[in-house]
Amino acid sequence: xxxxxxxxxxxxxxxxxxxxxxxxxxxxxxxxxxxxxxxxxxxxxxxxxxxxxxxxxxxxxxxxxxxxxxxxxxxxxxxxxxxxxxxxxxxxxxxxxxxxxxxxxxxxxxxxxxxxxxxxxxxxxxxxxxxxxxxxxxxxxxxxxxxxxxxxxxxxxxxxxxxxxxxxxxxxxxxxxxxxxxxxxxxxxxxxxxxxxxxxxxxxxxxxxxxxxxxxxxxxxxxxxxxxxxxxxxxxxxxxxxxxxxxxxxxxxxxxxxxxxxxxxxxxxxxxxxxxxxxxxxxxxxxxxxxxxxxxxxxxxxxxxxxxxxxxxxxxxxxxxxxxxxxxxxxxxxxxxxxxxxxxxxxxxxxxxxxxx
Length: 357
Ligand code: T4K
Hints:
CATH architecture of the largest domain: 3-Layer(aba) Sandwich
Bound molecules: ligand T4K
Shape: globular
Order of helices and strands: EHHEHEHEEHEEEEEHHHEHEHEH
Structural class: alpha/beta
Number of domains: 2
Largest sheet: 7 strands, mixed
């Protein structure tokens, strides 16, 4: 059996049926139905946040957050991320301005932000890469000094705490992705956590094609609603989520035990808890990475080059390619197979291959 970078978690079938039965009883399939409302409330409790809005996916979560917060002109962001962080800016008519990352945490380097700010800048869009927290304190100071909004791409940071509180409570908004490959998934889905209730209400209207209710006149909007089947999956998975985290933690501890000290890896930010979402390792150089990748894929193991290339190399994003750390890291990094489904035998098999045993 091939071993992919991840295997999505699925809830117990009977548990899922219990939620699906409710859909069959009510025939309420979408448009802010009871299961979506229930999941919104449960996630607020579970994550320890307020003003959480469920949406169709993480990419639309970003677009809606930018629009609800009135972001225009330019936004300072990171080149070491998935393309959606920046393409969502472009879709909203905002120019992404890339600044380089810290070599150890792999997150946006706060010390480089100020020099990238112009009179057109209205936001900073950092990413908590692989669930590792950015320097939220320093970023907020810079935002306050320059009167900018901060929208965190927290697609990887479900359930992460920083300094004893949810990492999602920093900035003006944080977005989550619940796409199948994420720690917590609803097949496709996402959420926005706003600091401000008014922004939440604007976003709620935006995701319902500009309608606040069926009778009033609409304003400009899009369709970014989560449906009831996705919410059923989310509710059922949340019921057993502690087991998902536990199994992922065991796999990460096994990787750590075998690989720590052998490969360079991401430095955990101080005060930040782990959600075991990804297991990145860095090779000496790209040649080394490519030969190991071949060895692994020949044996049916398919890790992923998250994130390669550094997205400042994409033509449609302006191709600046002048972020040497991001460019270097992106050529040398590989995310190893990790999921709640992976067995310790499989983790050990990957480690044996990496260590040439
Ligand atoms: N911001 C950041 C920082 C992000 O990382 C992402 C998404 C977003 C924003 C946008 O959120 P969404 O709009 O996607 O909600 C994946 C995901 O498609 C993407 O959600 C994710 N980040 C990105 C990092 O990775 P691919 O193309 O590398 O993954 P894919 O679909 O090839 O899946 C990887 C492996 O997982 C497959 O080889 C097999 C396994 N798999 C995958 C799926 C989808 C399964 O076994 N079953 C499945 O259903 O992009």
